[in-house]
Structures are given as structure tokens and as C-alpha cells.
Amino acid sequence: MKLIIVGCGRLGSALALSTARAGHEVTVVDRSAQAFDRLGADFHGRTIQGEVLHQEVLRRAGIEEADGLAVVTPDDHVNLVVARIAVLRYGVPNVVVRVYGLRHRPLFEELGVQTVASALWGAQRLEQLLTHPGLSTLGTFGHGEVSLVEVRVPASWEGQTLDALYAEEAIRPAVVVRGGQALLPTQAHFVLHEGDLLVLAVSRQAMKRLSDFFRHPQNAEASAKPQ
User: Fold this and answer.
1) 128 has a pLDDT exceeding 90
2) Strand, helix or coil at 124?
3) Which range, of 17-26, 140-149, 188-197, averages the lowest pLDDT?
4) Mean pLDDT throughout 75-97?
5) Domains in the chain, please, with CATH?
6) CA distance linking residue 227 with residue 223, whole number of Å
7) Which of 48, 37, 2 has its CA nearest to residue 23?
8) What is the mean pLDDT of residues 58-69?
9) pTM score of the predicted model
10) Is the terminal CB of the chain with fewer CB neighbours within 10 Å at N or C?
11) DSSP letter at 191?
12) What is the Cα–Cα distance from 175 to 152, expressed in whole angstroms?
């Protein structure tokens, strides 16, 4: 994925390093060239020094082709403007913003962007929102090898069955919540409906595949068919 991180403070630099290590194409933008010192010699992405509110700087960072953008400067007003540019001007499909003042949160939610309001979530939570949109981790087990994840079934999965997920050894459906009622999906031919809340146990290595399943249901359905 092509990712842009605006702001290279402690949180932004940690997010840049973790997403780059995961194999994503990462560009970091900051007003201060000295801020990039936090990235160290192991960072293999790009850095762009410039005014983050200038669209020319954002274009140099690749905003026109970006799959996701995280805005983590320490200024909510700057973050809001950058988020608006990303969503309304360039149509970036996934925008995540660190919000410092809770009173500002509704402004971001009106844009349809995901927000992180607590510093306790950290770079790990931001990375998940940025690289696996739509998936929410309820908890992890061991040293993070397995996560319990919930996802709201989108319209594109209406009428699909769990065949594709059961075919994945590293993904196991646990519970489906429908209309407030919890159901145990014990059969692979269990039919999903838009709005179902699906809870799954997922290995760390399978998170990307799970995200892809729900973005491209036709590919998931094909993979479940016998060869």
C-alpha cells in the first residue's frame, strides 16, 4: 500500500517505522527536517520537508495515488485541514487522524475519517486503522500471534457464505451478531447479511488477507471453490 504520514513526532515516526517494516510504501511529511532524525537509518521510505497545508507538498508526497493517509501533527486545526484536503480534494480512500481535543472529534467524523483520541492507542492501533480499514481488534493473545477481530459485514458481502473464511486455516469465525442476537456460525455455508457483526480469531499473518476478503468478495468467493 502507498501510505502518507503527515507529522513526524513520536507517534508519527513510530507509525512510519512500523508500516515501512511491514512492507508498505511510506512517505513522511513534516515542516521540520530535523523531525526526520527520529526515523533513524533503518527507515527506507521517503521524507518530504515542507508546509503540510500546501497542496503542492502533499502532491509531492503522492497524495493523488495514496491508499491511506495518517495525520498526526500536534495541532487539531492543521489535522482537520489536511484531512479535508485528503478526503474532499483528492479522495484518499482511508484517512486516519490523531485528535487531541475531544470537542473537535465530531468535525472529523463528519468527514467520515477514522479518529484516535487517546495516546494509549499508540502507533499499533493507528497502523491497524491505516492498513486494515474496517477491522477492529477486540484483544490479542500470547505475544500478539492471534487477535480477536470484529468486522461489520458490508453490502458487498450480502448473501456470501463463510466458505472462503473457513478455507483459511489462520482465520476462524467465532460469533455472528445479527439484530442483537449472537449466533454460532458452525457451518461453512452460513449466510452473511449486510450489517452483521462478525467476530473472528485471526493470526497476525492473516490480517491482510482478511481485509482483502471484505474489500474484494468476488476474489474470496472464487478462492473457496474447489480447483
Assistant:
1) no
2) helix
3) 140-149
4) 94
5) 2-131 (3.40.50.720), 135-224 (3.30.70.1450)
6) 9
7) 2
8) 96
9) 0.68
10) C
11) B
12) 12
